[in-house]
């Protein structure tokens, strides 16, 4: 069965396609739990697991400021992505 992709558009205009099968992933759930526990180091792994490498790079470029990828921007973007995915993205 072909994976169903869900398209979301971030406030900064970046369009992302999220494979709905990616949400049904125990490793992603563990990474999200790490974030809930305050482990900010999990953010890059969540980005890669949820978005894939190419979209992660696109996300980083969309939040780059003065040549640096803003940690605050990445956190805010991940919150926005998870909010747009709804409870499915948080509780898969």
Folded structure, characterized:
By secondary structure, this protein is an alpha+beta fold. The chain contains 4 helices and 4 strands, in the order ββααββαα. Helix 1 crosses helix 2 and helix 2 packs across helix 3. The two termini are 19 Å apart. The C terminus is likely disordered.
Give a short overview.
The chain is an alpha+beta fold. Helices cover 57% and strands 15% of the residues. It has one domain.
The main sheet orders its strands as 1-2
Mean of residue pLDDT?
Answer: 89
**Describe the biggest sheet?**
2 strands, antiparallel
Structural class: alpha+beta
Specify the helix fraction band: 55-70%
- What is the domain tally? 1
Order of helices and strands: EEHHEEHH
Q: What is the CA-CA span between the terminal residues?
A: 19 Å
Give the strand content: 15-25%
Question: What layout of secondary structure does this protein have?
Answer:
Layout: E1 5-9, E2 15-19, H1 26-36, H2 43-63, E3 64-65, E4 68-69, H3 71-85, H4 87-91
Helix pairs in contact: 1-2, 2-3
List keywords for this structure.
92 residues; two-stranded antiparallel sheet; alpha+beta; 4 strands
